[in-house]
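Support request from a user on the community tier.

User writes: "When I paste my structure tokens into the form, the page sometimes reloads and wipes my input. The last time it worked, I copied everything first. Here is what I submitted, just in case something in the input itself triggers the reload:"
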């Protein structure tokens, strides 16, 4: 039979039939597919067989012609194998098996090289952390894991660790050292992400445990820790608002915004947008090295307005008249004067986080983004931007209401209880629209 009987025009126009191109090559047209097939008699088994040669396009005459030419080339390769006494299907399957075996061997070698969680974490640290951080910060990164996570756990094969085992390991750490524990969780999550990409584990065990981890840790009485129990905050803030001085105002500002101490102390007027109700902290002052936008409540704006005129650049200047920001000690002394000797300024971030998670006020993404944790990069990509901003604004408004002793309410005005979830404005509009 002659070959090359088909044209591109015939392929595009055909409907549900086999089109013969010659010497066993056909183009099988169906409603949802169009494939090239070579019919042949196996020189090995002497049975009639069909070898799939891939898709043939019908989107245009040019595409149909190009894919038909490719199918003819593949058919000729198969015919050469048949003339040599080989079955092209068996040859194809053998090549696929060889590739699979090679991939499995490479994966096994990678797993053996990675070995334990400790070894993989060290490899990740060496390749991805050390080149990007100072020597001191890079060493702190790996030390926080190896000094706090039990050695028997770190020496487990990385692919054997389950979410529940990771949860049970992290809870005692976060109860003992909340801020360090949070860092360890984020760092291990990053390590497991890299292990997933490397094919060492099927899924990141840190992903499913985030809410449960916060819930369990949030139930712990925190009076022995640096963070103030959030239930005591309204009474404390009332005393703080009655205290005079710039340090008291800066401390209240730090509490209301969930900011780190140095971020609050160095706030400049150029970073405040009174119309947009935002404070934009430049990347140079952020721990993660990324610009951070804080959404300001009405009370936070009142604190700022009361500071206007003290200094042209700084919102909270030193009372010494040096034109420099106040020192960390100024805020710490304010806490001491108010009788809080066991609480640190930084601990109020943990108070905010525990309140938000334990009361189920907002989504984890909105909470972590408000704290300027690195997770916000993934969260922002997963949310509609306008909706995500509305959630963060509402969260900070609710936090301000809570610390001032006022009710925390949904968009429809109904109060939030321990078991209730706040309905953000954007979600409410979507629900009723």
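"...and here is what came back when it finally went through:"
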């Amino acid at each position: 039979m002659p070959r090359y009987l088909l044209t591109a025009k015939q392929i595009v126009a055909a409907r549900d039939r086999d089109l013969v191109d010659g010497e066993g090559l056909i183009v099988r047209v169906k409603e949802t597919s169009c494939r090239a097939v070579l019919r042949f008699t196996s020189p090995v088994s002497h049975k009639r067989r069909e070898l799939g040669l891939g898709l043939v396009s019908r989107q245009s005459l040019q595409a149909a012609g190009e894919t038909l030419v490719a199918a003819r080339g593949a058919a000729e390769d198969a015919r050469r194998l048949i003339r040599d006494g080989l079955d092209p299907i068996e040859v194809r399957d053998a090549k696929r098996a060889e590739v699979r075996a090679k991939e499995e061997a490479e994966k096994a070698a990678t797993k053996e090289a990675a070995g334990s969680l400790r070894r993989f974490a060290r490899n990740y640290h060496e390749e991805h952390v050390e080149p990007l951080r100072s020597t001191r910060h890079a060493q702190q990164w790996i030390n926080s894991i190896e000094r706090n996570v039990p050695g028997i756990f770190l020496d487990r094969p990385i692919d054997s660790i389950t979410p529940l085992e990771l949860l049970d390991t992290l809870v005692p750490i976060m109860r003992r050292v909340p801020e360090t524990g949070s860092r360890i969780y984020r760092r291990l999550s990053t390590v497991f992400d890299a292990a997933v990409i490397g094919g060492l584990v099927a899924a990141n065990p840190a992903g499913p445990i985030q809410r449960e981890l916060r819930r369990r840790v949030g139930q712990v009485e925190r009076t022995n820790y640096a963070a103030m129990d959030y239930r005591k905050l309204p009474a404390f803030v009332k005393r703080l608002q009655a205290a005079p001085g710039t340090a008291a105002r800066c401390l209240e500002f730090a509490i209301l915004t969930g900011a780190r101490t140095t971020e609050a102390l160095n706030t400049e007027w150029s970073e405040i947008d009174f119309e947009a109700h935002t404070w934009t902290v430049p990347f140079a002052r952020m721990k993660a090295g990324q610009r951070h936008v804080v959404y300001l409540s009405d009370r936070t704006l009142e604190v700022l307005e009361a500071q206007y005129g003290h200094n042209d650049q700084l919102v909270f200047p030193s009372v010494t008249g040096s034109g420099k920001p106040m020192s960390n000690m100024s805020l710490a002394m304010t806490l001491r004067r108010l009788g809080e000797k066991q609480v640190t300024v930084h601990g109020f971030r943990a108070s905010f986080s525990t309140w938000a998670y334990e009361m189920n006020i907002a989504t984890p993404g909105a909470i972590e983004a408000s704290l300027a944790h690195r997770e916000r990069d993934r969260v922002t990509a997963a949310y509609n931007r306008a909706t995500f901003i509305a959630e963060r604004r509402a969260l900070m408004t609710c936090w301000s209401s809570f610390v001032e002793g006022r009710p925390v309410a949904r968009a429809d005005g109904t109060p939030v209880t321990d078991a209730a979830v706040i309905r953000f404005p954007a979600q409410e509009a979507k629900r009723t629209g």
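Agent notes: The reload is a front-end session timeout and is unrelated to the input. Residues 219-225, 375-382, 418-433 have pLDDT under 50 and may be disordered. The beta strands are 17-22, 25-29, 34-41, 48-55, 272-273, 278-281, 292-295. Escalated to web team.
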